[in-house]
Amino acid sequence: MEMTNRSLHAADSKVNCVHCDGLINRNGGDSAEVSVPLSLLGKRTAHMEGDDLHRLRDRKFLLEDRKRLCALSLGTALLGILLMIIHSEICPFVYKVGSNIALIINCSISLSTGCLLILITLFHHKDIRLFVIDHKHLDWRIAMSSRRVLLITLELLVCAIHPVGTYWEVGLHANSSSSAPLCISNHQGEALMDMELLLSVLMFLRLYLVHRAIVLHSKVLLSASYRTIGSLNNINFSFRFVLKILMNKYPARTLLAFILFLWLTASWMLTLCERQTGAGTGHMDTAMWLIAITFLTVGYGDVAPNTSCGKAVCLFTAVMLKRGKQGVACTAMLVAVVSKTLALNKGEKHVHFFMLDIQISKRIRHAAANVLRECWLLHRTKLTKGNRGEHRRHQRCLLEAIKVFRHLRLKQKKLRDYVSEMVDLPKMQMIMCDLSANWSNSYRELEQRILSMEQKLDELSRCFQQTSELLSQVLRHRSPEIR
Fold first, then answer.
1. What are phi and psi of 47, to 5 degrees?
2. Which CA distances in Å does 121 have to 124, 128, 147, 152, 159?
3. With a threshold of 0.90, does the pTM exceed it?
């Protein structure tokens, strides 16, 4: 009994260890070392039943909370950007001197920024708890590496950027008796205008949350089968992997959404940069035209940016969409989408190449008939002994007919070789399936025949044994009579 109990306890401990080690981390299969939780004295803590279930339940809730916080963060960031755009668009036309609308909108932008910082902090708190659960650590400070701290700090700094020029103007005019103009204008100073413009443009850096939301809300990460197979194949479920899947499933829609979004964003940023100069690029339609010809590398020269900010936006557009690594990827995706759209499918290819083969076969038959006709005419000129000019003319016609016939045969061979590249694999697969089926049937028949032959040989051996016994008995009975 003691040996049985010990074996059962050992088996339970092994099963529990397997379940503990089988937990998949949040990255979808990245291999990581699993540390055993230690007590304060350095001894291994006892494994409690149900700890794995509690850990899995907590992990599920944390994943849902993280996804919810990511969606709220993206919505708050987009709300702040929308308020900034509204403030920049209606400020020169709607606000009056001494109006509080600009202050209210700027306060709303600051409030949304504060909410965004709180949501980002909560998101990373959930992320750290997930890290602790996945790696079975007791102390959360183990997860706070220098790289993680740097990334969180950088993310908070990026999300904290928003225009604050209205507050500065209120402070500048707080001691004056005149009412404070709460919109930045030309007479308030170039430094304040440039700072407000720079902060408004840098607010678009918050759009980095889009790729995080796409990853966390994608069907790839939500599907248990995807995660299981990905963990077995050491696949990291990053934004690049999700983008590849989207480009494979919806290439045209994904590329169109990316180009339109970047086009409209760059056009509005160029409008904001060029608005103070009073040039034509300060209008949205002209800015969209300039961004379009910059993206297409046409460069008509009819419009050009005048400010340093506008030149930087155009340079960013050219580098992003055409020159850099992302630009090469965008151009390659565009070419791939267009080629995939214009390419024939399998049925259309079969119909097209079948009709081409029929046409070439008809032309080959006509060319063969022309060769035979020219041979007959040449033979007839030899028999009739006509003039040499007609004989040479028929010889040239015969050589030309043979040349056309050979050219058509070579063209038909190339076409069939090209078609065979598409057809050979399924045809060979079908042939191999038929051969394997025939071999299996032949093997079964051969087995049955061998079994029947074995049965017949057994019967023959039994018959021979019986006859030998009968002969021996007959001989024993006859031997005394003979004596």
1. -85, 120
2. 5, 11, 16, 8, 11
3. no
